[in-house]
Amino acid sequence: MDRFPHVVILGGGFAGLSAARALRKAPVRITLLDRRNHHLFQPLLYQVATAALNPSEIAVPIRSILSRQQNTTTLMAEAIGVDPAAKTIQLADGECSYDYLVVATGATHSYFGHDEWAPYAAGLKTIEDALEIRRRVLSAFEAAERQSDPAQLRATLTFVVVGAGPTGVELAGALSEIGRLTVAKDFRSFDPRTLRVVLVEAADRVLPPYSPKLSASAKAQLEHLGVEVRVGAKVTRIDQTGVWLGEEHIDARTVLWAAGVAASPLGKALGVPTDRAGRVLVQPDLSVPGHPEIFVAGDLMAIATDGKPVPGVAPAAMQSGRHVARNVAALVAGAATRPFRYRDKGSLATIGRAKAVGAIAGLQLSGFFAWWVWWLVHIAYLIGFRNRLVVMIGWAWQYFAFSRGARLITGRAWEPGRPQDGPTK
Ligand SMILES: Cc1cc2nc3c(=O)[nH]c(=O)nc-3n(C[C@H](O)[C@H](O)[C@H](O)COP(=O)(O)OP(=O)(O)OC[C@H]3O[C@@H](n4cnc5c(N)ncnc54)[C@H](O)[C@@H]3O)c2cc1C
User: Fold this and answer.
1) 3-class state of residue 196 by DSSP
2) 0.90 exceeded by pTM
3) pLDDT (tens digit, 9 = 90+) per residue, 142-193?
4) Substitution site in 48, 91, 105, 345 for ligand 1 pocket (most atoms within 8 Å of beta carbon)
5) DSSP string, 29-70
6) pLDDT value of residue 315
7) DSSP secondary-structure letter at 413?
8) First vs last Cα of the chain: how many Å apart?
9) Residue nearest to atom 12 of ligand 1 (CA)
């Protein structure tokens, strides 16, 4: 085995894992490094944040996913730098050398240069983020039960979601359903159905990458759920009292952040050109300029195919991961690499119970049918038979019983402005 070239894959997300799996029969030694021990199915993270699913239903240990793949070793370690000239990776606690490198460390949210907003506007990228959002949302209802001042009660029951991309739309719809359906009968001193959910978007419509028709449908479905949709509204400040849109102040104790993208800092660490978000401007075969042995895949890459930028979504990450694996195998075999071409199979965004929009195979779907397709696709791609079964049963229960099974506040209740409640990362 030692005589085989060493392929190091940084990141066990959709891209890194797809690359590792696609190399399972190649004559290479693979080391997959991730700072977490689990692969996370991020598209369902908002369901953990809104108490519909438990973390273990959408996260699986990377080691167990790859346990039968004999040519692969999984290591839990944080990469902090890359030296392309020496072909080594600096880890937080050591070093690792490679013959071929696949960098797939993804991206996270950015506060557009306003990191001071982070403590008040929780973002969603990791399991910890989801549990933090769940803590804040459920704490707001608990605080409302003890609130006698009408203005304070209104602020306590006001939830602002910033960013109306798929995650913002999903969060806003789910928050509204929690108040109007899930906990509607659980409190005595206030009516949870009076909650106010405001979805704020700087662009002129929700779900900007979708067609104007689907954006309009998504807006109508959100409004049907009672969400207040504010498009063309730019956030200028966030603090413990709420959100400012220019001169207008929304008094809100819970603010969720679903906007902005910042690539993993490892992109810049490669010392090659990046775009404004820090994504690596890769060559057509997904290698980096000047280093044919280094490839970048997933959210960390910036590339256009067929004249369109490849979006930061799970199918693009999986396709690019498999593509870099094929190119690494080609180089090992002494063959030429091939350019990447993204095959857009469509997109779906769910809004709530039996509410969704989607564009698949040239068809524009909305409402119950789109929601049903969304449901099938997410179950199909979720890793692990047990998780698929548990999630299916959980969703069926939720649908018929209007319940959310994971309504636990772990740790202390959230109080905005309390000094020890710092940023979530
Ligand atoms: C809340 C949310 C909802 C989403 N919903 C959808 C959706 O509905 N549909 C869709 O198609 N896409 C969705 N996406 C986008 C999709 O999840 C991403 O496009 C996809 O995860 C990108 O895959 P990736 O492998 O590039 O990165 P990731 O999946 O982010 O994986 C990166 C991995 O690298 C590891 N890592 C990072 N830095 C280091 C380091 N320094 N050292 C070691 N390891 C490191 C991380 O721990 C992680 O495991 C969503 C994303 C989020 C955050």
Assistant:
1) strand
2) yes
3) 999 999 999 999 999 999 999 999 999 999 999 999 999 989 989 999 999 9
4) 105
5) EEEEEESSSEEE-GGGHHHHHTTSS-GGGTEEEHHHHTTT-T
6) 95
7) P
8) 39
9) 313
